[in-house]
Amino acid sequence: MTSAASAPIRVALVDDVDDIRRLVRTALRFRGGFEVVGEARTGADAIAIAAEQRPDIVVLDLGLPDIAGRDVLARVREESPETKVVVLSAREPTDRAWFEERTAGYVLKDADLDYLVDVLENVGRTPADVRVLEATRDVVAGARARELVREAVRDWGLVDILDEAALVVTELVTNAITHGGSDFRLQLSRTSGAFRIEVVDEGEGTPEPQPQDTEAEGGRGIMLVDAMSSSWGVENVPRGKLVWAEIAIS
């Protein structure tokens, strides 16, 4: 969600399957903070919409009937250089590096719709509302993550949730380092109703709350996350998993 005082994120939907566009349109309406300014079933129509509407984001299916997906992408960027493109595809890219250089995101059609909307929300949100830390798996990673939290809540006027946010970030980062066994990406964002924390790592498995055990030295982190946050969850993403939590704000 975006701030109620912010302009909606303007989105154009490009897919030759009517039901796909309808599902995405409904998900955006349900989340709020978006305006669908155009829909297209062909590459030619997508290019025309980009030129006329100059949307913030184009959600682009690569399998259009008239023009190859890469060519549509290039033409959209020519017609509206400020527009960001998020690919929504039925298959993994054969050249991921090519798409990473030219798009703001690549989402598979079998992914949860909420994940797609989260990607669009993050892509369309102003930089001031997002803080990101790309961190290696080392002993100072947790301290760097907490420092990012302190900076974010201070700048966003949310210091009253500092303790909860710092604890949740510590647990999610510790989980990524200890159980994910990989480098990680931390993203903090502010919406109209929540302070959102996302940690992406390349580890297998998903965290689950463990039964309380007063003698256990670990395994209770996710229980703390559950207690401190208004909601949390785990999603599969390309090359890993995303664990997120939200702390309610007024």
Please characterize this protein's 3D structure:
The chain is an alpha/beta fold. The chain has two domains: 9-124, 3-Layer(aba) Sandwich (Rossmann fold); 127-248, Histidine kinase-like ATPase, C-terminal domain (Heat Shock Protein 90, 2-Layer Sandwich). 39% of the residues lie in helices and 26% in strands. The chain has a five-stranded parallel sheet, with helices on both faces. The longest helix has 19 residues, at 162-180. It starts with 8 loop residues before the first strand and ends with a strand. The model is unreliable at 1-5 and 213-218 (pLDDT under 50).
Helix content: 25-40%
CATH architecture classification name of the largest domain: 2-Layer Sandwich
- How many strands? 10
From the helix content, strand content and strand pairing, which structural class follows?
A: alpha/beta
Q: What's the number of helices?
A: 8
CATH topology of the largest domain: Heat Shock Protein 90
Which blocks of ≥5 consecutive residues have pLDDT under 50? 1-5, 213-218
Number of domains: 2
Which assembly state applies to the chains in this document?
A: single chain
Fourth-tier CATH superfamily name of the largest domain: Histidine kinase-like ATPase, C-terminal domain
How large is the radius of gyration? 19 Å
Distance between the termini: 14 Å
What is the highest CATH level, the class of the largest domain?
Alpha Beta
